[in-house]
Design goal:
The chain has helices at 2-5, 9-13, 21-33, 35-44. By secondary structure, it is mainly alpha-helical. The protein is globular. The N and C termini lie far apart (26 Å).
Length: 46
């Protein structure tokens, strides 16, 4: 679980529309590990 969140700080803080391909992959990894966190971020940036 921790590995999925490792090095994800900027991916989580950056607007999802501005993520690079590798950052999108990291975001998908975070979503699979912590779906509640991903949902919260989607609400914030929508």
């Amino acid at each position: 679980m921790i590995e999925g969140l490792k090095n994800s700080k900027y991916v989580l803080l950056k607007n999802q529309d501005d993520l690079t391909e590798s950052q999108l992959e990291k975001f998908e990894e975070v979503k699979s590990v912590r779906p509640v966190l991903a949902e919260m971020l989607s609400l914030i940036f929508s």
